[in-house]
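Subject: mismatched residue count in predicted assembly?

I count 816 residues in my input, but I want to confirm that the predicted structure covers every chain. Input:
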Amino acid sequence: MATVKLIDYEEAGPEVRAVYDDIMATRKSDWVNNFWKALAVDPALLRRTWESVKQVMAPGALDPLTKEMIYVAVSATNGCGYCINSHTAVARAKGMNDAMLAEVLAVVGMANETNRLVQGFQVELDAVFADGGRKT
Amino acid sequence: MATVKLIDYEEAGPEVRAVYDDIMATRKSDWVNNFWKALAVDPALLRRTWESVKQVMAPGALDPLTKEMIYVAVSATNGCGYCINSHTAVARAKGMNDAMLAEVLAVVGMANETNRLVQGFQVELDAVFADGGRKT
Amino acid sequence: MATVKLIDYEEAGPEVRAVYDDIMATRKSDWVNNFWKALAVDPALLRRTWESVKQVMAPGALDPLTKEMIYVAVSATNGCGYCINSHTAVARAKGMNDAMLAEVLAVVGMANETNRLVQGFQVELDAVFADGGRKT
Amino acid sequence: MATVKLIDYEEAGPEVRAVYDDIMATRKSDWVNNFWKALAVDPALLRRTWESVKQVMAPGALDPLTKEMIYVAVSATNGCGYCINSHTAVARAKGMNDAMLAEVLAVVGMANETNRLVQGFQVELDAVFADGGRKT
Amino acid sequence: MATVKLIDYEEAGPEVRAVYDDIMATRKSDWVNNFWKALAVDPALLRRTWESVKQVMAPGALDPLTKEMIYVAVSATNGCGYCINSHTAVARAKGMNDAMLAEVLAVVGMANETNRLVQGFQVELDAVFADGGRKT
Amino acid sequence: MATVKLIDYEEAGPEVRAVYDDIMATRKSDWVNNFWKALAVDPALLRRTWESVKQVMAPGALDPLTKEMIYVAVSATNGCGYCINSHTAVARAKGMNDAMLAEVLAVVGMANETNRLVQGFQVELDAVFADGGRKT
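Triage response: the counts match. Full output below for your records.
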């Protein structure tokens, strides 16, 4: 169980309830997952994190499904079980099927393998890749 | 510089040249980057890694640009400078602009932040997220 | 369960018992936690690790509570559940309350986020920060 | 060099300048470091990250120096050179001396060592440490 | 449980069965572990990963037991419970005893400690270690 | 450059000189590498770390070359450039050739890939691998 008490809506103060209400309204759902109930131990942390996640995951230059798949990729690299399960579930709800998940993780596996080969051999950067290929 | 000698085409044996030729043919380019020249110290490692990368990064359930952005996301999480620069360059060549790169990294940053909050508070998984939301 | 047999006091040899005795005397407690019972598979590893932990976590230029909070911060970054729970418990026993824990993890989350933004964008170091600001 | 163009004050638009102005006012300084100049490629990312850092690093249940030392500890664990140098410099400016830095890193080293020993031996959690020692 | 359905031999198609058959023949065993049953969601991923693992873990310049111990060392550093348990079990079957496991993990712990001390202090490389000591 | 002043033999106090002398005597060399010169900022940290490294890397159930290769494997996984270069150089001095280095890193790459596939799919442990295959 969590190292802080999870705070349910009923026992939450007005600051926390306001965030929970916005989470549910934004997601068109009637519940809040445990992550937010743990952050509620610190209402400022809860609000800041939710506002950030809401802003970052909104449609922009990338669509929300691509963003969720990147979230899964990072969480798999970090080995965070809660994060992998919850973001895989959200990505599925947004349209990711088994074939797409398998390809996300195939890239994750390959990137983790080649990252360590590059580092292990201490390969120096090719001049053409300097600055990540920007031309400005 | 690398911890093994980088092997140029001119000094490479036939096994290594065959892989280099396939890399250049696949990419429609006339050069091979340093990563492959380091792996060439072990021709079997070179061939296996190239065959895997070629297969994983080919179009499939996900398009090649999405795959490159996931590669960048993992490499940023692992802090591999060569990998970040080279895959950012390739992603740019495939159509990623500054706005898309900034959103990739914004998601990477947010996922790394929330991964550690989840782990730091040891949040238990909500039942609805079990098995990553699969229904089978 | 652990990949080696945990060794209880009763079945331990004299080398292991001597370390267990010192752990209990130092902590003014009457038991030894599982971490040490696993290390006891190799008495030299047990002794060396305990002597190091005892030395590092003792009061010095930093107070013991600050050291425990840094331990929690690193363990959260590494996602080690045992380590997070045990060092959070010890930090609580030394005076860390929920508000302090939330701030520790807020910093951990922020550092993990900005570490990846810096790496993802490959930001070059400002001259003024060279050598970590030392003036010698 | 960075994978995006660093944006100086002179060439920045009003959204970016407003954040730069707040950074300088908050820090009572007359310059902005490269990290923010990279984030400026995406003004929303710049603003959100700065607002978060400002909030998280402000005095609260923990003092600003303790927070900076935790930032250094996480950055050392992640191996982010820019982050280590810049936050070490800021921590020094807030009062951290060599002896304190050495103790921060001694704890970081010890935590990274024991985290991996715990994981490598797959040690099961002692019941007394469940929930990080909370009593609620 | 896994985020994809594990595929048993009975329900597998011919591509998957062919890989399962080769796994069992290579290992002289009559079952396949869950890792492969998860990868079977994507037969190309399954085949590629198995062919790679078979090639990498075969006897070569290093013997198979040394390779398994390196696998355990990396898995302990990454905190992957499944990987630690399964590769520890395989290493034991190949001759690793408790004393050897303890030394593997002692080196893993020490390397993780000193890696972070080096990074935390940002130690510059001695000239004699450039290129990992190669003389070519 | 390092975030603390590197301390040369000539300017070191007697505690530090005693450790430097032991390093040189143990290694039968006439110099000390930068890592130790950074740790010398805290003589207790220097002594403790050196005593631990000397003990851990000595011949035991594993030979010193195998231990060095495990050190390289962990350092490659963590991306510590100093550590990779220095331990690769030491391993070469102890007999590791290019073919062996390539196999070490091939295993490191494969382990990092499959670690993330296991975590990404959240594969549950097979009963036979429980406790890492120990029978006690």
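Residues 1-58 of chain D form a domain with the AhpD-like fold (CATH 1.20.1290.10). Marking this ticket as 'not a bug'.
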